[in-house]
Write a structure and sequence with these properties.
heterodimer; A: 112 residues; mainly beta; 6-stranded mixed β-sheet; 5-stranded antiparallel β-sheet; 11 strands; 0% helix; globular; B: 115 residues; 7-stranded mixed β-sheet; 4-stranded antiparallel β-sheet
């Protein structure tokens, strides 16, 4: 079956580093996305990984291991505005290749 | 416009009422998606359009749900005879390419409450 797992909640301190993990089991794989969603707002794109390794974008980095079905999102120098839900999504390779399978999201609280 | 626009932002409907939710994607975006998001959950896929063609409607929960995009731009999601379990945020997203890897741009969603 299709399954995306990520922790429900995490807490971190302003200025620190936090790693949000995502494991997936899908019948096919054609890329993994991370999105950020503030309460009451639309998800916004953070990163996309299709090959193994680390993609770095400023304070945010995303890692993928296809053999392990594993990804993480790394947030450095945390700011209060980083308090949000972080959604992991996998593009399945079956069918017309358009559907994203979403995790339930990790709610991150950044404390002063 | 600059982003994906959805209207109305909030909709309250009585059970059994029909509703229509509108999505204006980013101009020129070929792909358009509808998602349903319950509180504290990730988005659930409903349907996908490439231009005016509805290529995947496997996520529509019942035949009460219908989506269209007649001219390959604006899309409407219609829910007939609404039920309480239809209460959720309905998100529309568009993207520029049909190949894999493109990112989705989401609208702010329509929050539907069925009483």
């Amino acid at each position: 079956g299709q399954n995306i797992d990520q922790p429900t909640e995490m807490t971190a301190t302003e200025g620190a580093i936090v790693q949000i993990n995502c494991t997936y089991q899908t019948s096919g794989f054609n890329g993994l996305f991370w999105y950020q969603q503030h309460a009451g707002e639309a998800p916004t794109f953070l990163s996309y990984n299709v090959l193994d390794g680390l993609e770095e974008k400023g304070r945010f980095s995303s890692f993928l291991s296809r053999s392990k079905g594993y990804s993480y999102l790394l947030l450095k120098e945390l700011q209060m505005k980083d308090s949000a839900s972080y959604l992991c999504a996998v593009r399945d390779r079956t069918g017309n290749n358009r559907k994203l399978i979403w995790g339930l999201g990790t709610s991150l609280a950044v404390n002063p | 416009g600059a982003g994906v626009s959805q209207s109305p932002r909030y909709k309250v409907a009585k059970r059994g009422q029909d509703v229509a939710l509108r999505c204006d994607p980013i101009s020129g975006h070929v792909s358009l998606f509808w998602y349903q998001q319950a509180l504290g959950q990730g988005p659930e896929f409903l349907t996908y359009f490439q231009n005016e063609a509805q290529l995947d409607k496997s996520g529509l929960p019942s035949d009460r749900f219908f989506a269209e995009r007649p001219e390959g731009s604006v899309s409407t999601l219609k829910i007939q005879r609404t039920q309480q379990e239809d209460s959720a945020v309905y998100l529309c997203a568009s993207s520029a390419r049909t190949a894999g890897g493109e990112k989705l741009f989401f609208g702010s969603g329509t929050q539907l409450s069925v009483l």
